[in-house]
């Protein structure tokens, strides 16, 4: 059984800027230069510029030409509204994403191993189901045991393996 009452998924907004920057800084301080599920928050210095891009990617008329319709969320703990994770949902897969999948997620280093990723993915599965998707595809590096467990706990089944940039990863499918 999933814990589903600890977190809420919220869309980026200006009021979350300082918290979001602290979230990113914690990843960077731990040597993590890639923040999965952040829609490139790890590569854009200006929060407002990133937020504008994220908002544009939620609408078919304004989504970037090289991207797909995507919703990006902060996972905030209900008790104190602290950002503990980020997750995105890509409603379709283009040629670039076909081996990566519909969803990416990350959890703040100081908040790991508390079940947050499992709950975040559970919420995204519900959002995807309500949007009419019948499955989600996710990729995970073979050595990322915690993420594999998160995917399996949400019904993920191994489908195939890939190699990208000399890294081996597995593709999982979650039937919705």
Structural class: alpha+beta
CA-CA gap between termini: 16 Å
Question: In sequence order, what are the helices and strands, one letter per element?
Answer: EHHEEEHEHEE
Estimate what percentage of residues fall within beta strands: 25-35%
Shape: globular
- Would you identify the CATH H-level superfamily? Gcn5-related N-acetyltransferase (GNAT)
The averaged pLDDT comes out at 95
Number of strands: 7
Q: Low-confidence stretches at least 5 residues in length (pLDDT < 50)?
A: none
> What's the gyration radius in Å?
15 Å
Biggest pleated sheet: 4 strands, antiparallel
CATH architectural name: 3-Layer(aba) Sandwich
**At the first level of CATH, what is the class?**
Alpha Beta
Cross-sheet strand order for the largest sheet? 1-2-3-4
Features:
176 residues; alpha+beta; Aminopeptidase; three-stranded antiparallel β-sheet; 7 strands; Acyl_CoA_acyltransferase; transferase; acyltransferase activity, transferring groups other than amino-acyl groups; GNAT_dom
